[in-house]
Each structure stands twice: as structure tokens, then as C-alpha cells.
Amino acid sequence: MAEDPDNQQPERIALAYEALRGECPACRAQIKPDWQFCAHCATRLATRCPGCGVPLPPAGSTRCGHCGIELPAPPAA
Ligand SMILES: [Zn+2]
Ligand SMILES: [Zn+2]
User: Fold this and answer.
1) What are the CA-CA distances from residue 73 to residues 1, 4, 7, 36, 77 (Å)?
2) Stretch 6-27: mean pLDDT, rounded?
3) DSSP H/E element including 70
4) Any idea which ligand is nearest the CA of 19?
5) What angle do CA 25, 77, 63 make, to 5 degrees?
6) Cα–Cα distance between 51 and 31 in angstroms, integer?
7) Does residue 33 contact residue 16 with C-beta atoms inside 8 Å?
8) How far is the CA of 56 from the centre of ligand 2 (A)?
9) How far is CA 1 from the centre of its chain?
10) Model confidence pTM above 0.70
């Protein structure tokens, strides 16, 4: 079996947990844990992957790095 891909993205995972604490990693605004995007700056936030439940990498990711499920596109600016 392959290693957990999360271990290969320490910076992204660190940002993911930062978002999970309730703070946008981009603009530092307060966010809610169920938000997939910051309502203040539209940065992708780390929420649980709808496919496998792992914290998602923020900003620019189009697929879960763990299970490969396609993630929703950011809202239009
Ligand atoms: Zn933000
Ligand atoms: Zn997943």
C-alpha cells in the first residue's frame, strides 16, 4: 500500500489545520469549520473531504490528495 499522501504535503497540511482552527490562512478572518471557502477572500479552506474525510489542502487544489475525488470549483469572483 502507498504511504499517506498527506505526509508529502506538510506545508499544505499545516495550512489545512490552521483553517480548521477557525482562521483563514490567507486573510486571517474568522471562518466557520464547515466553510469550504472563505467568505471574505474566497480562498479555499480546509474542510473534510466529502469522499474520504481527511482535511483538504486549501487554495488551488482541484482534487483531494488522499482519495482523488474532484473538489468543487471556487465561486466566481
Ligand atoms: Zn480569507
Ligand atoms: Zn478524499
Assistant:
1) 30, 24, 24, 10, 12
2) 66
3) none
4) 1
5) 60
6) 22
7) no
8) 7
9) 24
10) no
